């Protein structure tokens, strides 16, 4: 009797578990390049986990440093496996979570997310666009500082990475919290900069 009860319990547990349907970063990258990608990709709707099957994210992981326009940048990139922002999210990803520290030319820290938890760094990425990994960054949102960051390791030297920030500048400007908006300089460079892996 105990065996039958155990088998029945095990059977019910197996049935109640939702099967994980795995897709790849490459599939979602291809989807984003389709002419009708805004309509979604019906062939990928059942996927519950987007996996880095070819380990493309691994080359980005580490601490990267560089200088640009008098500022010193330190960027820490970590690979998260089967990551969900919230436990209830239907879709999980292998993705990069980033942390940034920026110092001015006198060495004073003007921005740092180094000690923030994963869901509070405001610097994350989901996928590639050809050779570039596309991340999203939110700095001082009151000054409309948010946008996409394109990072890419160099083919000839994988210990060098280029970074380019494309600022959105859309949203609601709060003049009380950003009185110098017209002269505000973005935290990240809007021209390509070089970072060196440490």
Molecular structure report:
This protein is mainly beta and 198 residues long. An eight-stranded antiparallel beta barrel has the order 3-4-5-7-8-9-10-11. 12% of the residues lie in helices and 39% in strands. The chain is built from two helices and eleven strands. It has helices at residues 2-16, 25-32; strands at 22-24, 49-51, 62-68, 71-83, 92-103, 109-112, 123-129, 132-138, 146-153, 160-167, 193-197. The longest helix is centred in the N-terminal third of the chain and has 15 residues, at 2-16.
CA(first)-CA(last) distance: 62 Å
Number of DSSP-assigned strands: 11
Largest sheet: 8 strands, antiparallel, barrel
Global Rg = 21 Å
Question: Which short descriptors sum up this protein?
Answer:
198 residues, mainly beta, eight-stranded antiparallel beta barrel, 11 strands
Short description:
With 198 residues, the protein is mainly beta. The chain contains 2 helices and 11 strands.
Layout of SSEs?
Elements: H1 2-16, E1 22-24, H2 25-32, E2 49-51, E3 62-68, E4 71-83, E5 92-103, E6 109-112, E7 123-129, E8 132-138, E9 146-153, E10 160-167, E11 193-197
Parallel strand pairs: 1-2, 2-5
Antiparallel strand pairs: 3-4, 3-11, 4-5, 5-6, 5-7, 7-8, 8-9, 9-10, 10-11
């Amino acid at each position: 009797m105990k065996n039958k009860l155990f088998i029945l319990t095990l059977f019910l547990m197996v049935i109640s578990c939702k099967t994980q349907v795995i897709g790849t970063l490459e599939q979602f990258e291809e989807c984003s390049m389709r002419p009708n990608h805004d309509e979604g990709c019906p062939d990928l709707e059942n996927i519950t986990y987007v996996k880095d099957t070819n380990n493309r994210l691994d080359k980005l992981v580490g601490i990267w440093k560089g200088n640009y326009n008098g500022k010193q940048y330190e960027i820490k990139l970590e690979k998260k496996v089967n990551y969900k922002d919230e436990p209830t999210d239907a879709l999980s990803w292998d993705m990069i979570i980033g942390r940034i520290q920026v110092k001015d030319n006198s060495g004073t820290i003007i921005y740092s997310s180094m000690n923030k938890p994963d869901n509070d760094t405001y610097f994350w990425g989901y996928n590639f666009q050809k050779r570039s990994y596309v991340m999203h960054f939110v700095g001082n949102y009151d000054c409309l500082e948010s946008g996409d960051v394109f990072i890419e390791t160099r083919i000839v030297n994988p210990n060098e990475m280029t970074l380019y920030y494309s600022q959105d500048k859309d949203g609601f400007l709060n003049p009380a919290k950003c009185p110098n908006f017209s002269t505000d300089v973005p935290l990240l460079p809007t021209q390509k900069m070089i970072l060196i892996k440490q």
